[in-house]
Amino acid sequence: MKYQPGKVHVASLAALAAVGVLLLIVAERAKAPAVQPHFAEKSEAAARAERALRVIRAERLAAGLPIDPVNDPAQTGLVGLRFSLITTDRGSPEQKLRALDPNLAAVFVELLRDADVRRGDHVALGMTGSFPLLNACAIIAVETVGAIPVIVSSVGASMWGATDPELTWLDMESVLVRERVISHRSIAASRGGGDDAGRGLSEEGRALVDAAIARNGVTPIVERTLDAAIRRRMEVYAGAVGDDGYRAYINVGGGLASLGSAQVGQLVRPGLTRRLATRHFPRRGVLARMAQRGVPIIHAPGADALIARYGLSGEIAPTAAVGTGAVFYQDRYNTPLAGVLAVLYGFLIFAVVRLDLKHYIFRRPARTEAP
Q1: Which residues pair with 158 in a beta bridge?
Q2: Residue 265, Cβ neighbours under 10 Å: how many?
Q3: Of 22, 234, 285, 354, which is most buried with the most CB atoms under 10 A?
Q4: Over the stretch 5-30, which tens digit does the pLDDT of each residue have?
Q5: For position 357, what pLDDT does the model report?
Q6: Strongest mean pLDDT among 74-83, 179-188, 273-282, 349-358
Q7: What integer pLDDT is reported at residue 309 of this predicted model?
């Protein structure tokens, strides 16, 4: 074998680079969508979440409550008032609209499976009225994987959430149970807001929240301090299945009793966290106390981080179609073809860089002497 003497010509390297780009284009164009794990469960969960959207919209219309076509362009009926007597905090309308993607239920299915939640396990959920469809998606996902949700809610909601006093999150939850979209409902509820006791709401607002808890038949959590409210929630969860009976804890929204403080909501990464270091938390809410017991945490303070991580469309109007996004399908390379192209390109590099090609291309055949 005759090797290349001296340096490789620049033109040869340029040709080699061009061939490399061409092979890369061939590999990219050969990619095809591949079905992701737990596809059937994800599809079922997303379809149920889409039905939840339709059921709540129908309930709002039946109750004679208006739908704002400007702030709720898809007219889902799940975008509430900016200000009401039960509005507890600020909120972004765009953030609330993006959280109306039914495929978020499929994201929760994947997170639960990643947390090794199995049929018959108990999953604790803490949620507020700020993201009603996200709440429904979490419950639907737990039920879809065959686990049992144990839910504690707070009624107050940030702007554009379930802020209508006549159609709070607890009312929506009751409708979903009545229409058999979900099978489980909150076993206890607090007012939410400051100290989880409705601080910041008017007396009339607190009365409306208390009335919603009463008409939905949910056990009220009424404590004077946030620490007492956190302890009470832990007692409620323990009373349902025992101190160590949970396979995962899901937080939806920014409820103070669940997080302990607003800063904790920023410290915990959205999605699944198997082991959470809580020693620097300013106050340990239910989330941190569950984590201290080794319970995996699924944190969903909103939908945006989950939408970005799991490749959902983030469409607002119309809402995203069921079964779309990287949580269902992801483009994969054609592995055999990519392997062949890699070997071929490796051979070309070796031939151009190491072999004396002129010798092999332009050499004359050896003459044969006459006898």
Answers
A1: 89
A2: 21
A3: 285
A4: 667 778 878 888 898 999 999 888 88
A5: 64
A6: 179-188
A7: 95
Percent of the chain with pLDDT over 70: 94
- DSSP annotation of 3 reads B
CB atoms within 10 A of CB 318: 10
Structure tokens belonging to residue 289: 């106390």
Contact 212, 168 (CB under 8 A): yes
* Confidence at 32, pLDDT banded by 50, 70, 90: confident
d(CA 303, CA 220): 28
**In sequence order, what are the residues at sequence separation of 6 or more whose Cβ sits closer than 8 angstroms to the Cβ of residue 140?**
45, 48, 49, 52, 105, 108, 181, 182
CA distances for 175 relative to 63, 180, 239, 352, angstroms: 12, 8, 26, 71
pLDDT at 244: 86
Q: Do residues 160 and 99 touch, judged by C-beta distance below 8 A?
A: no
Find the angle CA(69)-CA(127)-CA(225) to the nearest 5 degrees: 120
Average pLDDT, the chain: 92
CA distance 224 to 194: 11
Bridge partners (DSSP) listed for residue 154:
190
CA angle 226, 263, 204 (to 5 degrees): 45
pTM of the model: 0.86
Contacts of 308 (CB under 8 A, 6+ apart): none
Q: What is the DSSP code (8-state) at residue 320?
A: P
CA–CA distance, 104 with 126 (Å, rounded to integer): 17
Angle between helices 39-62 and 104-114 (to 10 degrees): 140
The continuous run of DSSP H or E covering 123 comes out as: strand 122-127
Residue entry with tokens 């799991």: 310
Q: Which tokens hold the place of 201? A: 């709401």
Task: Return all residues near 69 (Cβ < 8 A) that are at least 6 apart.
Answer: 75
- Please state the φ and ψ torsions of residue 370, each to the nearest 5 degrees: -70, 145
Number of H-type helices and E-type strands within the chain: 14, 11
Residue 158: its H or E element: strand 157-158
Give the model's pLDDT for residue 360: 65
Q: Which residue has the tokens 């979440």?
A: 49
Q: CB of 172 within 8 A of CB of 79?
A: no
Cα angle, residue 155 at apex, residues 68 and 105 outer, rounded to 5°:
70
CA nearest neighbour of 302 among 54, 127, 154, 85: 127
